[in-house]
Amino acid sequence: MAGLENHAGNAPPVTLSNGSQQLMAPQAALPGAVPVIDFRHVVVLLGRFPALAGLDLRIDQGEIVVVRGANGAGKTTLLKAVSGLVTIAEGSAAVLGVDLRRDRRTVRRSVGLLGHQGFLYDDLTVVENIAFAVRAGGGDPERIDPAMRRVGLDGRLRGLRVGACSAGQRRRTSLASLVARNPALWLLDEPHAGLDPVTADSIDHLIKDLQKNLGITNVVVTHELRSVFRIADRIVFLEKGVIHWTGGPD
Question: Model-level pTM greater than 0.85?
Answer without folding.
Answer: no
